[in-house]
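Quick note —
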Amino acid sequence: QVQLVESGGGLVQAGGSLRLSCAASGRSLSSYTMYWFRQASGKERETVSGISRNGDRTHYADSVKGRFTISRDNAKNTVYLQMNSLKPEDTAVYSCAASTWYLGADRYDYWGQGTQVTVSS
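Predicted structure written out below.
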């Protein structure tokens, strides 16, 4: 079992930055492909970004390319999402997920509870 806990969300003005963290316990995060998702009120869940087990491959949704950066520190059992140039449309609950599958497999084994990000205009 893996427990995932997100932190770092909050209220920020448009153009600002936030750094989200996803801390894992229970097992080493190095065994998992990791993802960040978001879900805005009344909208479907969106895959924001993913990172391979050793961090050598990443992918991003078109909506966040060039603004968001995913990274991981397996020694700290933590995955990060650096969000820059935030826009009001980035407002959502952001969650992380761990997968035993390869990057892009669209299969997930563990989920965090999420952290709210609100971007004011």
